[in-house]
Amino acid sequence: MVARKFVVRHEDSSFDVDYNTEDGLEVLRFQIFSLTLVPPEEQKIVAEDDNRLVSDESDLASLSERLRLVSVGEDSVENSDAEMLKSDEELARMLQAEEDAIMFQQFVAARDNGGFEGRIRPYVSQVLMYEDPVRQDAARKTVPKDELEEKALVSLAKEGNFEPSKEERDYAFLLQLLFWFKKSFRWVNEPPCDFCGNKTIGQGMGNPLTSELAYGANRVEIYRCTMCPTTTRFPRYNDPLKLVETKKGRCGEWANCFTLYCRTFGYDSRLIMDFTDHVWTECYSHSLKRWIHLDPCEGVYDKPMLYEKGWNKKLNYVIAISKDGVCDVTKRYTKKWHEVLSRRTLTTESSLQDGLRTLTRERRSSLMFESLSKLELRDRNEQEELERNLHSADDASVSLPGRQSGDREWRIMRSEFGSDENSSVSSSSCPVRKCIDDHVTNIYDSFQPILTQFVEDGLPVARTNEVLEMIKQVLVDLKNAPYKTRKARLTLDSDNSSSFPEQFLPALGDLLLALSLKSERDTNGKSVTISVDGKLTKTAIALPVALDALRELVADLSKYQNLNKDSLSFPLVKQNRVCSGSVLASGEELPSGIATAAFDGIQESKWEEPNGAKGCWIVYKTLYNQMHQLIAYELMSANDAPERDPKDWILEGSNDGGSTWCVLDKQTSQVFEERFQRKSYKITTPGFQANLFRFRFLSVRDVNSTSRLQLGSIDLHRSHQ
User: Fold this and answer.
1) Does the structure show a pLDDT above 70 at 101?
2) What sign results for the dihedral spanned by CA atoms 427, 433, 437, 441?
3) In the 8-state DSSP scheme, what is residue 79?
4) pLDDT single digits (tens) 298-312
5) Is residue 160 classed exposed, middle or buried when 0-12, 13-18 and 19+ CB atoms within 10 A define those classes?
6) CA dist 504 to 27, 30, 470, 493, 494, Å?
7) Coil, strand, or helix at residue 533?
8) Catalytic residue among 251, 257, 262, 327
9) What residues have CB less than 8 Å from 288, skipping those under 6 apart?
10) What keywords are assigned to this protein (predicted)?
11) Three-class SS of residue 200?
């Protein structure tokens, strides 16, 4: 550990930063962010004495004390040797390798004889099935459209976007369609026995039946049961209409069927054929103005380097096929074009492009001039993008997994296993993320008047829980109702124990407000109708939080023999929760285990740090740099994997931009006995005002069995101000 004092110059200002080198570069970036408002991901920090870029490899202990901050977009210093993407010598080698590969292609051109084009042409007929109204209607009927629309709006709201454009909504819906499909479709290694459901063993290929040929199953795999004499057939259907029904297959069936779903909902879609034996989908995003990679087998989107970097694939040809034409998109999926080019030996590059242009012209021959012009403009923009992508630097902070679909032995046999069996998409360079969680604080606060009313009326704990269960049931009914027309009824009766006590109705006001709900007494006066107040997304994002909080509250109250005014304190009452700040973490899982998931109030979500088992951190910066005195905090274990629970940690606060830190609490040997278990802690160093709070997690429950740390939730509670 070395204490340093840096002077950081930015534009016309200078800032003093006291810094502990043990904390790493990310914390230094966050300190600079708190002073300059330049987000960490947009910072370039340069040592002024030698103009060298400060990176994760830099020795912060010996670095010059005078630094210069250059935000992305400003004119920067000249690139140092470390920043150069390619040396002249390396570039020369790459150019020579490309030239050699092109020369070798000349020797194979004569034996092509249009074979490459003939290999692609059947797929053109395949993608035209996606335009069939009958097939689209069959697919549409299987999709819970309202549910996916709601999830799409919630995903945008969690990013702070409560009024998205149509293009943003469409893109968010597309991702929810991908996640739904991943859960709905079933991967087949060996099909289970048709008779007893036990494991089967492959026996080779069989002759297709007429009923199988009707849906394009020219290949049929035969399997024998290991427990009974039954033979099971596995037809490899090519007609997506049949796949909508069977919902099973391998990558060919998955991509074939998913692309139909994409076209069904109006997305410009392409079937992507990888000649090294994989298939996936691309859709055009009007919000991003580019084609997006979507792999339904893996449930991964917009990660085109998944195959070369994660699976260690040796790509050669990646061809996009749609109703509007055929395109070579190999350059989207590689950073090693000179190596890929050496493996492209089926035909020459010129013959390849000629064949693809021929197929594209055929598909566009009947288009009107305006439509044709738009497609040609999109084609030109894509080619420019592919060239830029080829020469852009790879994001080394993003870790991509090996193949996850298919059994282990099959993946290893195909050399697609990757380097880590449990790997997933993750990032060691996280952006600062905004917490959209004021509704969580409002919901927690709204229980205070309800509990106070219970105490004032002297309700027994058993009756208290009965009333809370009635409230919970109303919220369950609302959550299960269509999100656009949510409505539920609460029956009132002061004397009937099975009805909601009318005198408690006013105490519900704050909870309904926190959920963006309204109540209206029915004409008979014996019931109340509760419905959305027009803010559909706010209700959708808040309802799961309220339900989780109510379940916890009922469980907590069950531990009390009676309820009195002294009971209405922390941790039963969780008032003054800090919210709406921003967070930065040492690492996170993408897309579901991001840092803000620890603050969203939902039990099923979690922050996951892929390399945090032996040490990691998360920093919380308050809204508008408001100073708060923490009095307590709570941590909740996540949904699974108890070995990843935090065991030892330190909570610190800072009021000078992170230059110095005050220890607020320290815990060791903590054990979460259950999943979704919330533990509450009082601050051991009270009275300290801070606007930055940092958890340093030192160890997980079992460092020998995992590299990861995960947390279901973090809640910070301040003193009343």
Assistant:
1) no
2) positive
3) P
4) 999 999 999 999 999
5) exposed
6) 49, 47, 12, 11, 9
7) coil
8) 251
9) 171
10) Metal-binding, Zinc
11) strand
Catalytic residue among 239, 295, 328, 715: 295
Q: What is the mean pLDDT of residues 244-251?
A: 96
Q: How far apart are CA 330 and CA 494, in angstroms?
A: 70
CA 597 to CA 686: how far, in whole Å?
A: 27
* Sheet of 433-434, strand order: 433-434, 582-585, 616-621, 692-700, 646-654, 662-667
Tell the residue number behind the tokens 């009318």, with chain if given: 502
Does 154 score more than 70 pLDDT?
yes
Confidence band, pLDDT 50/70/90 cuts, at residue 79: very low
* Higher pLDDT among residues 78 and 719, named by residue: 719
Least confident range from 111-115, 549-553, 560-564: namely 111-115
Q: Give me 651's structure tokens.
A: 């909570």
Helix (H, G, I), strand (E, B) or coil at 55: coil
Per-residue pLDDT at 496 exceeds 90: no
pLDDT for residue 25: 79
Q: What is the pLDDT of residues 618-668, one digit of tens each?
A: 999 999 999 999 999 999 999 999 999 999 999 999 999 999 999 999 999
User: How far apart (Å, rounded) are the C-alpha atoms in residues 167 and 171?
Assistant: 6
251 catalytic? Reply is yes
Report the candidate in 603, 576, 625, 584 with the shortest Cα–Cα distance to residue 678: 603
Indicate the Cα dihedral angle 35, 36, 37, 39, nearest 10°.
-100
Name the pairing type of β-strands 300-301 and 290-295. antiparallel
Question: Is 46's pLDDT higher than 90?
Answer: no
Q: Which residues contact 220 (CB under 8 A, 6 or more apart)?
A: 205, 206, 207, 208, 209, 212, 233, 234, 235, 236
**CA-atom Rg of the chain in angstroms:** 30
Mean pLDDT for the stretch of residues 564-593: 94
Encode 137-179 in three state secondary structure: HHHHCCCCHHHHHHHHHHHHHCCCCCCCCHHHHHHHHHHHHHH
CA dist., res. 284 & res. 461, Å (int): 56
d(CA 437, CA 545): 10
Give mean pLDDT, residues 62-89: 58
H/E run at residue 580: none
pLDDT at residue 255 above 70? Answer: yes
pLDDT at 512 over 60: yes
From the candidates 10, 225, 239, 278, which is the catalytic residue?
Answer: 278
Strands 248-249 and 186-187: parallel
Of 620, 649, 630, nearest to 577 by C-alpha is 630
Determine the residue type at 469. E
Does this model's pTM top 0.90?
A: no
Which run of H or of E encompasses 449? helix 438-456
Residue type, 632: A
